[in-house]
Structure formats: C-alpha cells, structure tokens
C-alpha cells in the first residue's frame, strides 16, 4: 500500500496536470472575435438611438399625433400600471413566504405576466398604427425595436414621466396647474 506522502504527490501531480491543461488550452485556443455591430444587432436588436432615428423619419404631423396618443395612454393607464406594480410586489412577497408555496408563486407570476402583456399590447397597438407612414427601412428598424423587452421600455417611461408626475402633484397641491410632459419620441 502506498504511503501518505506518495498519495499526496500523486494527487498533486494530477491537479497540476489539470491546471496545466486548462492554462495551456486558454493560451493555445484562438481568441473569440469581437462581436460585430451586425452580430450584436441580430442578438440584442437595434440600440435605442438607432430606433429613435427611425422614429424621427415619421412625418411631423403623425409624430405629433403619436406623442399625443402615447401621452394620453400613459396617463389613462395609471390604474393598470399600479396593478402591475402591485402584482410585482405580490411575486416578491410570494417568494418570501415561509413555508414556501410553489403554486402561490406561480399564480403571482402568471398574474404579473398577464397584466404586463395587456399594457404591452396597448402600447404596441399605438406604435404599430403609425408604422405605415414611415419609409420601409425605418419601419423595419422601428418594428424590430418593438422587440426590446417591455419591462425595459416601461422603466424608461417611468423614469421619463415619473419625475414630471411628482412635479405635477406638488404643483397641484400648491394651487397651480402644470401641463403634462410632452411625450418624447418613442425609443423603440
């Protein structure tokens, strides 16, 4: 039977050989190419500035109408957006509950997804209704921008309109009226 020292040396030799193989493999394998802009576009979709440039090709009159519709939609969806926030909190709280209930979490996630889908459909319907008045390439870029995850668009909208909403509440309580913010060009 081999001694402890022999077993230790054999183990050390195996670990060193494995480490040498890993390091050698990294050194001698070809480096992955930097992803090209086209590869990134195919994987992640167009960037927000590209999508904004596409939407900028919408005729001015239609762009004004789109802004108006999006602004009105944003304010009319306040209750739905609150229900979506509440559904998100329900998912978080369902995950915290002890003992953990898989079904309760699944139900909370399903409710959140349904509410999110409803908001997404409403916003996309408004945007899609204006695509026909754009040049074909801009229309294709803007349509691809619709594939941006909805929660990213909602977060940007919350950041864009949430600050103005707080200002509106503060000014309204002081007795003055602040006009709702102008809707920015759709970024996707």
Structure description:
The protein is mainly α and 188 residues long. The chain has a domain at 46-173: Four Helix Bundle (Hemerythrin (Met), subunit A) (Up-down Bundle). It has eight helices and no strands. It has helices spanning 4-28, 37-44, 48-55, 60-76, 78-96, 102-131, 136-145, 150-173. Helix 3 packs across helix 7 (136-145), helix 4 (60-76) runs antiparallel to helix 6 and helix 5 packs antiparallel against helix 6. It is flat.
SSE string: HHHHHHHH
CATH class of the domain at 46-173: Mainly Alpha
CATH architecture of the domain at 46-173: Up-down Bundle
Q: How many individual β-strands?
A: 0
Proportion of β residues? under 5%
Name the poorly predicted regions: 167-188
What general outline do the C-alpha atoms trace?
flat
Query: What name does the CATH topology of the domain at 46-173 carry?
Result: Four Helix Bundle (Hemerythrin (Met), subunit A)
**Structural class, please?**
mainly alpha
Largest sheet data: none
Radius of gyration, in Å, reads 27 Å
Please state the average pLDDT score: 76
Helical fraction equals over 70%
N-to-C terminal Cα separation, in Å?
71 Å
The count of helical stretches stands at 8
């Amino acid at each position: 039977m081999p001694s402890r020292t022999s077993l230790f040396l054999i183990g050390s030799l195996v670990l060193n050989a494995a480490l040498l193989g890993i390091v050698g493999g990294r050194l001698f394998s070809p480096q992955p190419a930097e992803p090209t802009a086209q590869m990134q576009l195919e994987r992640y979709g167009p960037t927000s500035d590209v999508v904004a440039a596409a939407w900028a090709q919408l005729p001015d009159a239609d762009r004004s109408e789109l802004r108006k519709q999006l602004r009105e939609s944003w304010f009319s969806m306040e209750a739905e957006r609150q229900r979506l926030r509440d559904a998100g909190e329900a998912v978080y709280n369902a995950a915290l509950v002890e003992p953990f209930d898989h079904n309760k979490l699944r139900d909370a996630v399903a409710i959140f997804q349904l509410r999110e889908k409803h908001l997404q459909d409403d916003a996309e319907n408004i945007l899609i209704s204006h695509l026909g008045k754009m040049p074909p390439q801009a229309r294709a870029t803007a349509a691809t921008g619709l594939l941006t995850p909805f929660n990213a668009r909602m977060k940007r909208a919350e950041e864009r309109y949430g600050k103005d909403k707080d200002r509106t509440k503060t000014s309204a309580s002081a007795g003055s009226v602040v006009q709702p913010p102008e809707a920015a060009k759709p970024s996707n």
